[in-house]
Amino acid sequence: MNLPKDNSHIPEYSPNPSFQHYAPYYQAPKKRKWVAGILSFIVPGTGHFYLGLMQRGLFIMMLLILDIFIITSITTRSDTSVPMVTLFALFIPVIYFYNLFDALQTTDNVNRRNELGEFAAELYNNEDPLQKLIKGTNLGVILIAAGVLFFLLSNKPRWFTGLFDLMGSYIGSVILVLAGLAMYVLDSRKNK
Q1: Which ranges does the record mark as transmembrane (predicted)?
Q2: What is the value of pTM for the model shown?
């Protein structure tokens, strides 16, 4: 297509609202926090779908479904381990409220990214730890760990069952302490 070099092919812009011939800029509509919050409250992960963050929404849904599956598989066995059921039952509100909080916080980032475009994408992709976690090899490691856990729960070797019978509540405490320490170390490195 040969265009004239004097820009005579581009129509002039008119401030008249009925002028539809040429729009130099189209701004994406802002996402509403209350909509993301209500969707996340009703079905975890759907608030992230509303924000356009499909991987994050699927990841949260997968975590919740995985946790419910583990609880039902533990409780349907004849030798039910109460500490294991308690440990995995405590993960449900953690996942649920993290989903709600994250959807509300991410709404601002998505709106800034829509307003600023490429500049905001560079700023916020470096700070988002969940986005780093679900990208590439990290998601693969999480899926492998979940598969190993499913395998151990379905076969129930004696050492695994004995470990949870003996130290079930301690394992949950250790996991929470280690997660808190990891968050503290990551936050102190970011502030330096």
Answers
A1: 34-51, 58-76, 82-101, 136-154, 166-186
A2: 0.57
